Amino acid sequence: MSAIAIITGATGGLGQEFVRSVQTENFDEIWAVARNEKRLKELRDTFGGKIRPVKCDLGSADDLAELFALIETERPDIRLLINNAGIGKMGRSDEFSDDDIIKEIDINCKAVCLLCKHSIPFMKPGARILNISSASSFQPVPYINLYAASKAFVRSYTRALNVELKSRGIICTAVCPGWIDTDMLEKEHNGKPVKFPGLVSPERVAAKALRDSAKGRDMSVCTLFVKYEHLLSKAWPHKWLMKIWMNGIKDYV
Ligand SMILES: NC(=O)c1ccc[n+]([C@@H]2O[C@H](COP(=O)([O-])OP(=O)(O)OC[C@H]3O[C@@H](n4cnc5c(N)ncnc54)[C@H](OP(=O)(O)O)[C@@H]3O)[C@@H](O)[C@H]2O)c1
């Protein structure tokens, strides 16, 4: 039975960093899940034969069914699952298309829960799940309303799952980073550079997340800046925090 890690969004900024960080661990295979075949091939060329590219659109029910069928057929020993893939669109919620809304919920929430559900039967004590949430899960965030709500869902779901799976020795960690320097961020808006306070590298976030998961923590918060944001979200009325946020984005909306 192969010992494997499954990492979704493995071709993106943070996902690739997770692949890099765990490639020397004792896995027979790292299942790298994403849509772009060229980038999946490049990932294999960079990190070697342990990488198993799994082309899958996490927003497609058919592709998800194929992924679950692959797990059922191979019955691997899943030692690590990182539900990292995520999308986020900025803008007025009422201007989103139906498809925008459905896709964001399907990828950020539905795929995460389904992949946990289909992986847990193949996990033994010591296995770990990392679900990537965000600091935007700490309070409501206008203009990334849906994204922040989806990440609050992931955080809540993961922390509760951690309690449910404790007796089976499986650790679940909700990773809640602030801004990370990846392609997800729109670096310019209307010709002006966008400011991202507390921006960190994917390397730093991945390293902290894996450390926290190894320690059995149900949440991983990287950098003092984001820890401070987390504390404020518990101490201050969310109305105030939304006002501060609105002031920060007034040039962009
Ligand atoms: N960047 C930030 O500031 C930030 C902050 C907090 C949390 N996060 C979270 O961190 C995670 C990683 O984000 P990132 O910044 O590394 O993003 P990224 O660079 O845009 O990478 C996104 C990854 O997700 C994959 N993906 C997107 N749609 C997919 C789909 N339908 N099916 C399968 N894979 C899909 C992409 O690959 P393909 O295009 O090949 O499918 C890519 O590998 C996300 O959950 C994000 O919400 C990011």
- The number of helices is 8
Query: Which band does the percent of strand residues land in?
Result: 15-25%
Ligands bound to this protein structure: NADP nicotinamide-adenine-dinucleotide phosphate
The sequence of SSEs as H and E is EHEHEHEHEHEEEHEHH
Mean pLDDT across the residues is 97
Distance N to C terminus: 52 Å
Helical percentage: 40-55%
CATH topology label: Rossmann fold
Number of domains: 1
Q: What is the SS-derived class?
A: alpha/beta
What is the CATH class name? Alpha Beta
The description of the largest β-sheet is:
7 strands, parallel
Tally the beta strands: 9
Q: What's the CATH superfamily, by name?
A: NAD(P)-binding Rossmann-like Domain
Name the shape in a single word.
globular
The name of the CATH architecture is 3-Layer(aba) Sandwich
Low-confidence stretches: none
* Widest β-sheet, arrangement of strands: 3-2-1-4-5-6-9
Salient structural properties:
253 residues; alpha/beta; Rossmann fold; 7-stranded parallel β-sheet; 8 helices; 16% strand; globular; binds NADP nicotinamide-adenine-dinucleotide phosphate
Description:
- The chain has 253 residues and is of the alpha/beta class.
- It has one domain (3-248): 3-Layer(aba) Sandwich (Rossmann fold), CATH 3.40.50.720.
- Helix content is 45%, strand content 16%.
- It is built from 8 helices and 9 strands.
- It has helices at 13-22, 37-47, 61-74, 98-119, 145-165, 202-214, 224-235, 238-248; strands at 3-8, 29-34, 51-55, 77-83, 128-132, 171-175, 188-189, 192-193, 219-220.
- The strands form 2 sheets. A 7-stranded parallel beta sheet has the order 3-2-1-4-5-6-9, with helices on both faces. Strands 7-8 form a two-stranded antiparallel sheet.
- The N and C termini lie far apart (52 Å).
- It binds NADP nicotinamide-adenine-dinucleotide phosphate (NAP).
- The site of NADP nicotinamide-adenine-dinucleotide phosphate (NAP) has 31 residues, from helix 1.
